[in-house]
């Protein structure tokens, strides 16, 4: 449904008796909502009757836990609706029954904002339950989404029925309003008690406008702070919070004022103590009305919220006006309290949290007073009771040290009194003295009391010096206290070949998990090798641990360095060169310490290294080789058209991301480091990371395995460029027999390249296989080699090449350590020899699809064919590729027909004319959802075999839907489905500069003597938006240096908010491919998109281009009018051209004539400009 045609006041519920009432399943993958009745396929689960009829014949929507992957979710989305009233309520019935039930959530979706409004989890018995949740005032187009998740068990399902929207239409206008009511600007009548109470009861906001002029004082929505509400020091505080940070543990997911997760409300800072918040003073008032909204979630009769009227400062003689226990609810509830007072008074909200359990809370929002409430302009204090006598305090006198410590004890000489510890506790990396004297000369140092046995060993004139922080030092503060001491070396004097070195005392042996912590500051320009850290053993052999080459922006930066197991004594050396005469070119150190270094240290369980970032970074730390850091965030990122809309864990929680705005340099790298992890067992562990990489200029994300002892880092997984606007999982099976760290590095690709990560987990054992997928990382996945073929398929990887001609990296991990299968060729084989391998048996089903990635590169590359083979031996050819395809992994997919009960997939490699060709396959998947045939792509599931040419262009093509209102994210509907939930490819026209380009590469197509027709739909909308070009290329042109080929179609300038069709006849005698090129225009904005690409083996019909749906609701008549105007302009231009031609003897050829002749364009000499005609 188009956003512009969504009718206000139409709210679509459903009983599911006849159909799904335009409610649509928008799940990704197998786990989905299905209309069903009389139980689901899972044994002993699922409702046997629906709620509507109460019989086995009735229908409902259900999600089966026997379908889908662990922690997957199914999503059911309503039709688009708009303009819901303040009183709008969603009612439905749910059935959650079974041992493996996950969670059912209801979301309110507005543009990219997705807010949870209801949630339940677990087994609720074999019966239907009624649910009611407030939708609240929504001013724009919205949908409601039911989202169901599952746990690890497969026993259980979730069902819903009888969805209905109540009181959702806006109030109707009246000819006149009765007395004692307020007449809104739209002539709606509203009770006077509902005026200026932060609720849009009129429907146009007029009842909430000009409230100050209507003598409504001391209203507070808490959006700008606490207003004049105060707190008592004797009690716990109330504090501001909002849903995106507080939910689900400490507050509701949205506020009342704005009805969004970013809106503010107040909650007790301690939900288990007594908290008070107090209003400003009220003068004597009669019939004073206080309106407020509260949100309660939980089930505690002892935890309660109370409203008091207070007349004495001490709180004695408080009068209770209202109270409410914590109870389950999904509404902001409006409360109206009327009272009178003959003396000055204050209103007190008091929360007593005693007896409250986990995930129970109460919140308050939108407090307002009626005009009858008289406020004290001086906010004077209430009368106080006579003060009580202060308690008597008896001072204590510390005892003096009478006897020294024994010979086998160490004296904590700085600590008060007599304090002795065992000598063995001296210099063991563990502080035993109260003030740390036992470790002070053993490496750790704050430099407040001296150098702690650290020393300068420099041969240069410059020396490390202990300085006191002041306005004349750089930095002007130390790290320890702000006014204390730190170590500093001035590098601005005459350069020297010798480095300035600062050495530790001799340090004792360590555990494998030992880390060095220090704070540093580097001044001066970037590019100078500013500071390095070395470890030196007893034989004086040095190993570099770390280096930093650029200046630091902050005064002090913290670094954690893994030292690892040191079986002998060792030293740490900080070293820096004197290579610059620039002022302020200095290095500073402070607060050196050691973590987990005692030899008795044992690390916590491996699973504790996981992190969802809901509260902090857990035990992960930022790397400091640059100042560029990972940021913790909830909700969408600041940069438009990039980054996730919410976290992966819940959609409303926190994640980490890198900010790619123009303030950060392209290529900047943020590093996140795990705690030092123990050596793995024989089975290792599975590392899983959720990642999100979406935007026009996304950089790269890497997972690096860093052994602490050998210090040879290995990239075990990486991705570059946009991966789609969704969360993906990266996983790697790690087996390493030494202590190690996981490093996660993200780089900036450009201004629209936010990269996010979430939900890091460590699970003992190998990673669980995905149903139907083989990535060959753990072995052959029961694929077998034919015994009667000529060649063999060999499992290999890029870092252990058996032959010269095999891929240097796999597709799964995009690294040289990942695995794939390649066709083994040698000089002893001949052209036409085959290698055959086959999969295990698959059970046939409807809407199955084969996906795989293949690699075909090198001289005289052979042929790759995929077959579907049935039990009777009949084979069906699914796809075939031949010849050189470039040094890259390409994607292919093909539908799997359901013509037999079982089948297997057969991979056949055919030898080319030389052994120098490479044929390999990876990531073979049999999915249970449909896909398009080769040569056709509608982008509904993926981008098929099309790919961005990141090495050649400036930005990426992106896959998106039309239901986004973010600027320049493409048209409001796709062409395939003509709806806002269909997909297409688009270019973010707000990114980059005039002339920047985005390149999209097709698969390689075989020639055909019958001719071929290449068709696609395009959408170019906006002034000076740019140019869309289509090139065709082949191996001959490419080998001669023409990377794009020759131009066969072009369009530029504003073509209206319309999908247009284009067709190009192809006549090639050798394999060929296409490249779509977008060239950015002068403007920053507009839509450029493509959809429904197809190549057919017949010549194109000579019909003029046709238009598709006008995506913004422009009528056909408007399109015709535009065409007529363009025709008139064209005639006028032709006349001017003829007049010009008469004054010139030159022979010009138009651009279209040149295109018709298939001329080859030199991009360096001819650059197409925008044309509005």
TrEMBL record:
SUPFAM superfamilies noted in UniProt: Concanavalin A-like lectins/glucanases (SSF49899), LDL receptor-like module (SSF57424)
Keyword set includes Membrane: yes
User: What PANTHER family does UniProt report for this protein, alphabetically?
Assistant: APICAL ENDOSOMAL GLYCOPROTEIN PRECURSOR, SI:CH211-106H4.4
Please give the Pfam families that the UniProt record associates with this protein. Ldl_recept_a, MAM
Q: Where is this region: Disordered?
A: 380-401
Keyword Membrane in annotation? yes
Cross-referenced InterPro entries = ConA-like_dom_sf, LDL_receptor-like_sf, LDLR_class-A_CS, LDrepeatLR_classA_rpt, MAM_dom, MAM_domain-containing
Q: Which PROSITE patterns match?
A: LDLRA_1, LDLRA_2, MAM_2
Name the Gene3D superfamilies on file: 2.60.120.200, Low-density Lipoprotein Receptor
List GO terms (cellular component aspect). membrane
Please state the span of the N-terminal signal peptide per the UniProt entry. none
Query: What are the disulphide bonds in this sequence?
Result: 177-189, 184-202, 196-211, 427-442
Q: Which residues cross the membrane?
A: 1114-1139
Query: Which residue ranges have biased composition labelled Pro residues?
Result: 384-393
**UniProt-recorded name of the protein:** MAM domain-containing protein
Q: Which UniProt keywords apply?
A: Disulfide bond, Membrane, Transmembrane, Transmembrane helix
- Read off the CDD domains from this record: LDLa, MAM
Residues of the MAM domain: 12-170, 218-375, 443-599, 609-769, 772-933, 935-1102
Superkingdom of the source species: Eukaryota
């Amino acid at each position: 449904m188009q956003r512009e045609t969504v009718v206000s006041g139409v709210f679509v519920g459903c009983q599911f008796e006849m159909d799904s009432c335009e409610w649509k399943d928008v799940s990704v993958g197998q786990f989905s909502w299905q209309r069903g009745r009389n139980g689901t396929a899972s044994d002993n689960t699922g409702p046997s009757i629906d709620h509507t009829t109460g019989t086995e014949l009735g229908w409902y929507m259900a999600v089966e836990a026997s379908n889908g992957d662990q922690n997957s979710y199914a999503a059911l989305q309503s039709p688009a609706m708009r303009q819901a009233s303040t009183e709008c309520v969603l009612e439905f019935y749910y059935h959650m029954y079974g041992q493996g039930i996950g969670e059912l959530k209801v979301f309110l979706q507005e543009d990219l904002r997705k807010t949870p409004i209801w949630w339940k989890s677990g087994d609720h018995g074999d019966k239907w339950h009624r649910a009611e949740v407030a939708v609240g005032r929504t001013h724009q187009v919205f949908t409601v989404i039911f989202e169901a998740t599952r746990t690890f068990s497969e026993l259980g399902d979730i069902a819903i029925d009888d969805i209905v929207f109540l009181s959702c239409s806006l109030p109707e206008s009246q000819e006149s309003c009765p007395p004692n009511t307020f007449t809104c600007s739209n002539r709606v009548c509203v009770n006077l008690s509902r005026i200026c109470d932060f609720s849009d009861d009129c429907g146009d906001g007029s009842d909430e406008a000009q409230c100050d002029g209507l003598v409504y004082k001391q209203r507070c929505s808490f959006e700008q702070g606490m207003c004049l509400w105060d707190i008592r020091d004797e009690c716990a505080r109330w504090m501001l919070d909002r849903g995106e940070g507080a939910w689900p543990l400490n507050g509701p997911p949205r506020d009342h004022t704005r009805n969004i997760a970013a809106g503010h409300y107040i909650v007790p800072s301690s939900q288990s103590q007594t908290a008070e918040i107090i209003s400003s003073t009220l003068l004597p008032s009669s019939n004073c009305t206080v309106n407020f909204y509260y949100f309660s979630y939980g089930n505690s009769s002892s935890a309660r919220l109370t409203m008091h009227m207070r007349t004495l400062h001490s709180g004695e003689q408080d009068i209770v006006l209202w109270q409410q226990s914590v109870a389950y609810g999904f509404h902001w509830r409006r409360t109206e309290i009327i009272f009178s007072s003959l003396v000055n008074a204050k209103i007190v909200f008091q929360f007593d949290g005693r007896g409250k359990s986990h995930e129970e809370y109460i919140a308050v929002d939108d407090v307002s007073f009626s005009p009858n409430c008289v406020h004290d302009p001086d906010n004077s204090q209430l009368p106080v009771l006579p003060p009580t006598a202060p308690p008597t305090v008896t001072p204590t006198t510390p005892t003096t040290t009478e006897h020294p410590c024994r010979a086998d004890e160490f004296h904590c000489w700085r600590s008060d009194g007599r304090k002795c510890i065992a000598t063995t506790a001296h210099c063991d990396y563990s502080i035993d003295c109260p003030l740390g004297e036992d470790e002070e000369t053993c490496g750790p140092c704050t430099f407040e009391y001296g150098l702690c046995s650290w020393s300068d060993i420099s041969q240069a004139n410059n020396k490390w010096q202990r300085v006191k922080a002041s306005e004349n030092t750089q930095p002007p503060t130390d790290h320890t206290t702000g006014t204390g001491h730190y170590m500093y070396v001035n590098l601005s004097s005459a350069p020297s070949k010798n480095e300035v070195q600062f050495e530790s005392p001799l340090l004792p042996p360590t555990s494998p998990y030992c880390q060095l912590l220090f704070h540093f500051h580097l001044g001066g320009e970037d590019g100078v090798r500013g500071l390095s850290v070395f470890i030196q053993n007893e034989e004086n052999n040095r190993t570099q641990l770390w280096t930093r080459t650029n200046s630091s922006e902050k005064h002090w930066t913290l670094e954690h360095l893994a030292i690892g197991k040191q079986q002998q004594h060792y030293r740490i050396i900080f070293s820096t060169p004197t290579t610059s005469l620039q002022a302020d070119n200095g290095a500073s150190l402070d607060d050196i310490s050691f973590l987990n270094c005692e030899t008795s240290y044992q690390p916590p369980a491996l699973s504790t290294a996981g992190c969802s970032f809901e509260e902090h970074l857990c035990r992960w730390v930022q790397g400091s080789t640059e100042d560029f850091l990972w940021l913790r965030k909830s909700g969408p990122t600041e940069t438009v058209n990039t980054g996730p809309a919410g976290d992966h864990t819940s959609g409303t929680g926190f994640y980490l991301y890198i900010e790619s705005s123009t303030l950060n340099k392209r290529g900047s790298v943020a590093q996140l480091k795990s705690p030092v992890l123990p050596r793995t067992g024989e089975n290792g562990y599975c590392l899983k990371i959720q990642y999100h990489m979406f935007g026009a200029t996304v950089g790269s994300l890497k997972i690096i395995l860093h052994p602490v002892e050998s210090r040879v880092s290995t990239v075990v997984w990486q991705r570059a460029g946009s991966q789609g606007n969704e969360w993906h999982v990266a996983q790697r099976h790690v087996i390493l027999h030494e202590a190690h760290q996981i490093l996660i590095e993200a780089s900036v690709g450009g201004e629209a390249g936010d990269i996010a990560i979430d939900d890091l987990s460590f699970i003992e054992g190998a990673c669980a296989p995905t149903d139907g997928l083989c990535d060959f990382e753990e072995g052959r996945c029961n694929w077998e080699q034919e015994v009667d073929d000529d060649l063999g398929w060999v499992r290999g990887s890029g870092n252990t090449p058996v032959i010269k001609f095999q891929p240097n990296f796999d597709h799964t991990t995009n690294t040289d350590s990942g695995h794939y299968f390649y066709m083994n060729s040698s000089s002893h084989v001949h052209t036409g020899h085959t290698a055959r391998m086959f999969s295990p048996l698959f059970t046939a089903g409807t809407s199955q699809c084969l996906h795989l990635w293949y690699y075909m590169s090198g001289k005289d590359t052979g042929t790759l064919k995929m077959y579907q083979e049935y039990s009777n031996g009949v084979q069906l050819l699914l796809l075939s590729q031949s010849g050189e395809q470039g040094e890259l992994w390409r994607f292919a997919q093909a539908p799997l027909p359901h013509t037999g009960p079982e089948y297997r997939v057969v991979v056949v490699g055919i030898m080319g004319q030389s052994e120098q060709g490479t044929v390999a396959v990876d990531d073979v998947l049999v999915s249970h959802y449909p896909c398009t045939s080769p040569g056709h792509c509608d982008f509904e599931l993926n981008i098929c075999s099309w790919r961005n040419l990141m090495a050649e262009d400036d930005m990426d093509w992106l896959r998106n839907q039309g239901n986004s209102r973010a600027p320049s994210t493409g048209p409001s509907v796709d062409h395939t489905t003509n709806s806002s939930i269909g997909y297409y490819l688009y270019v973010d026209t707000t990114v980059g500069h005039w002339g920047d380009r985005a390149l999209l590469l097709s698969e390689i197509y075989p020639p055909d003597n019958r001719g071929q027709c290449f068709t696609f739909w395009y959408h170019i909308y906006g002034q000076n938006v740019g140019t869309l070009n289509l090139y065709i290329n082949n191996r001959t042109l490419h080998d001669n240096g023409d990377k794009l080929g020759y131009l066969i179609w072009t369009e530029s300038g504003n073509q209206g908010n319309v999908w247009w069709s284009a067709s190009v006849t192809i006549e090639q005698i050798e394999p060929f491919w296409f490249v779509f090129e977008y060239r950015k225009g002068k403007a920053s904005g507009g839509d450029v998109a493509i959809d429904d690409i197809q190549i057919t083996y017949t010549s194109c019909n000579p019909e003029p281009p046709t238009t598709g749906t006008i995506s913004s609701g422009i009528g056909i008549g408007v399109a015709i009018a535009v065409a007529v105007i363009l025709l008139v302009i064209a005639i006028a231009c032709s006349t001017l051209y003829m007049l010009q031609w008469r004054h010139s003897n030159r022979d010009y050829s138009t651009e279209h004539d040149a295109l018709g002749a298939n001329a080859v364009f030199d991009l360096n000499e001819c650059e197409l400009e925008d044309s509005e005609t």
